[in-house]
Amino acid sequence: MDGRKRDNIYPGLPVAIVQKQDQRSGRLTKGVVQDILTSSANHPRGIKVRLETGEVGRVREIKPPCPILKRRG
Fold first, then answer.
1. Total structural domains in the chain?
2. Using CA atoms, how far apart are residues 31 and 39, in angstroms rounded to an integer?
């Protein structure tokens, strides 16, 4: 899925984001989406989200859901 399209992002989705201070290095932070902060349908650098840990950044990768959690649901 594409992290530049808002329709692909939803709360509870595991993602990897790049935070503002990490843009030069490209360091990614993994987490789970809490809120979607970008209001437009698309963004060329990625949809901005807040993770459950409070970190804010743009989605670079969408991770597949954990198979263990899928079995429980």
1. 1
2. 20
pTM, full prediction: 0.84
| Residues 16-66 pLDDT 10s | 999 999 999 999 999 999 999 999 999 999 999 999 999 999 999 998 876
Give the span between the Cα atoms of 28 and 17, in whole angstroms: 5
CATH number for 38: 2.30.30
The parent domain of residue 11 ranges over 6-63
- What ranges in 1-73 are assigned the alpha helix state H? 67-72
